[in-house]
Write a structure and sequence with these properties.
about 90 residues, alpha+beta, 2 helices, 6 strands
């Protein structure tokens, strides 16, 4: 069983918990390309910061639903459009 572990800022973690945010973005650079392209994961583990192992309130586990490549403009990445991996983190009802 292989998991993709993503550490998030509290702002983005809370948005995912509320359902407001359905994708988590990672810059399309060699580091993330190696970890995502041609790989399959069982789960995406979303952590709020770097919690203690027993702190379950700051940990979300979602089934792996894949990703898409997108070009976005977001303050986190600066003012220019950048290519990102948009990792699906929503729970489909």
């Amino acid at each position: 069983m292989t998991d993709l572990v993503l550490h998030l800022k509290r702002e983005y973690f809370d948005q995912i918990v509320s359902g407001e945010k359905t994708e988590e973005y990672r810059l399309a650079n060699p580091y993330w390309t190696k970890r995502l392209e041609d790989r399959h994961y069982d789960f995406v583990v979303l952590l709020c910061g770097y919690p203690a192992r027993e702190d379950r309130r700051r940990r979300i586990v979602r089934s792996w639903k894949g990703y898409t490549r997108k070009t976005i403009t977001h303050p986190h990445f600066g003012n220019s459009p950048v290519e990102v991996f948009a990792i699906v983190v929503e729970v489909k009802q």
